[in-house]
Specification:
This protein is mostly helical. It folds into three domains: 30 residues, no CATH class; 64 residues, no CATH class; 32 residues. It has four helices and two strands; from the N terminus they run βαβααα. The relative contact order is 0.05.
């Protein structure tokens, strides 16, 4: 959902081209109905738990759809690295941008090279003693 934060330019008289650049850009936010049931009522203790539950359900649903679309096994969530990934994304905050192909490819390539270097000693022993 996109919410416009301002529809009028700031004070001062400027030309149309200048005034268009003074509009605040839209920002994505969580739908307000998740936080407020009615505008005149104060939230009670424990209602935030319902909000968090609904947000968690939305996250799980969209993540499951992505895993299905990408053909990733659902057992992948049992890996310890997945827990680390979720913690890092949570620490970054709600406006994390998805990684590009190249941002994922190069760190993964370096990790593969480190693994192959670690295996060199084992491969030499395999030649001597067999696999």
């Amino acid at each position: 959902m996109i919410i416009w934060t301002s529809l009028t330019p700031s004070s001062g008289s400027r030309s149309n081209n200048e005034s268009n650049s003074l509009f605040k850009k839209p920002k994505q936010t969580v739908p307000l109905h998740l936080y407020y049931n009615t505008p005149s009522r104060q939230m009670k203790l424990g209602e935030t738990d319902d909000v968090k539950k609904e947000l968690k359900d939305q996250v799980c649903k969209s993540f499951a759809k992505w895993m299905y679309d990408a053909g990733i096994s659902f057992n992948a969530v049992n890996y310890p690295s997945f827990n680390t990934f979720c913690q890092v994304v949570g620490q970054y905050g709600p406006y994390v941008k998805p990684s590009t192909y190249h941002e994922v490819r190069f760190p993964l390539k370096k990790e593969v090279e480190l693994t192959l270097d670690a295996m060199k000693e084992h491969k030499n022993e395999w030649k001597t003693y067999g696999c």
